[in-house]
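Reading a protein record of the kind used here takes only a little practice. Each token is a code from a learned vocabulary of local backbone shapes. With that in mind, consider the following protein and its fold in token form:
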Amino acid sequence: MAWTWLSSTAAPLQQLVSFLQKQSKTSDVQKKQVIMELRDNLNLFKEAIETPTSYDRLIDLLSNDAYRNAVKENFAFHKIKGGKILAKHVKDERNLRYTGWTAEKLMDKIDEKIQALKNLKKLNGGSVEKIAPKISLKVSNLYFRMKLMADFIYESGR
């Protein structure tokens, strides 16, 4: 699988993954789990650059359980990062449309996209390979949403 759209973000991605590792050291269990899940999902993309894999495998490994747990526990997502996404948080032009969004709204859209990919895979007999062009765009949109969330958190933690 070609991950060319991802390779241009490899260096900043490593920095974000390391930063999220540090941020996950908190006594707030829900916050810790959500940040660790974001870190782990971004790490999957980092690994996909180094060891190309199929979209099917990536979709299988993506997780949204911590997010869904946090919602069940009525977690206040502003604890991860308060305020709204500003233009200064956006490192990739394609994410400018998320300016003005909160961490909660963006995390909700990340969850929605992960669940949609998992459902598409199930609807297509357990593989998205036959609809790869469509999936490539959906996976890249998910990645850039997750990267924006990490960039947003990173801005406050420096």
Residues 90 and 96 are 6 Å apart (CA to CA). Residues 132-157 form the longest helix (26 residues). The radius of gyration is 15 Å.
